[in-house]
Amino acid sequence: MKFQTVLILVLLFILPQYISISQKKDANASRPYEEVAKQIISEGLKSCNSYSLLKDLSLNIGPRLVGSPSAQKAVEWGMKTMKDLGFQNVRLESCMVPHWVRGQVEEGTIILTSGSELPIKICALGGSISTPEDGIIAEVLQVKSFDELKSLGEKAKGKIVFFNRPMDPTKYNTFEAYGGAVNQRSVGAIEAAKVGGVTALVRSMTLRLDDVPHTGAMHYVDTIQKIPAAAVSTIGANLLDSLLKIDPHLKVKVKLSCQTLPDVQSANVIGELVGTEMPQEIIVIGGHLDSWDKGQGAHDDGAGCAHSIEALRLIKTLGLKPKRTIRVVLFMNEEFGLNGGIAYAKRERPGEKHICAIETDAGGFIPRGFGVGGDSVKYQSLARWSYLLDPIDAGRITRGGGGADISELGKLGVTTIGLRVDTQRYFDYHHSDNDTIDKVNERELELGAIAIAIFSYVIAEEGI
Ligand SMILES: [Zn+2]
Fold this sequence. Notes:
The chain is of the alpha/beta class. 38% of the residues lie in helices and 24% in strands. The protein has 15 helices and 16 strands.
């Protein structure tokens, strides 16, 4: 073999391999925590313990509407679960919460001018007043927006105002589609009452065509007449829409027996792993413990509770000793006024400094990454850890993020972070009888917990 040939072979085959090995070494040196992240992934997927936690909460406690006896049981469950796992400083921090009860009666009926009656599936919106015992029977004014309602003015008087603007299916992010429609649910009763409407009937907030009404919070203001408000299933909404076209003077009957009782005391549930070097510096990870009274509150937000507890368990089980404190907070009443989130942020905590708060409240679906609120410096600092999440395809760190429970902390300058998950199925289940444990995939759920464990651990070590 000629020398030149040998040289060419060396250049072609041997040198690149050498370069590749040395690059790998450099890469490892510049990619700290890779080994720890691998361990967290492997430990999580081996046990999928988050699913056992969520199954326990969903089946043994079930739906846990704020203020209800089952919400109280959920608080006890949170305490016991975290104590059993050996978390430190497991405790309650109390807060007052509203107590609304749905009641037994929820009936919707379309009454055609011919006299024929067709039942439709409805449910009271959270916070609604009841109807009179015999219900409300009235003609229907269908609108797609508040502007349309205003322009129709007098025509709404004495009518059931039917808000039928669907979530926009062309949006990739279903939360964006939800955001574009949810004002009908939250303040539809106020807008309807302003123009003399007698009930607000709102198309369910889901992209799915099914016969299950989806509840959610609605509000009144003291200066405007309070009228009942109910959600109708999307199948019911479409039926009503078609029938109104051929029988515009048809009537709808709505019967609800819900009521608001005096506020009660409840609590956030807290447990932590105290930091070894800077225990006063806190990384909060959390979701909300309350749920609507439909389904089992599995995805919303039992999944977030299971994610948070499991994330800390993974860190603890692997014997990791983070420098800063990682604190699990199961917030009370995200759904109906954020009492827990507000109480947590308001509480005096002498000497403590919150580094960031991570919220998971988008369901137990495949994690994609994290959204980071606040300034670009904080974002850049956190985005550098994306390679640790890439092995589970959850390395998309984007700007803008947080969650309702931690929004009050955000106002105090704490960096807020939201776990981002695949959003396509979330509103199929959201706030409805469909939100049950069988809709949760145990590996998808666990991957969310793994993502939070990796991210919170590296922040606890490195700060932001
Ligand atoms: Zn939620």
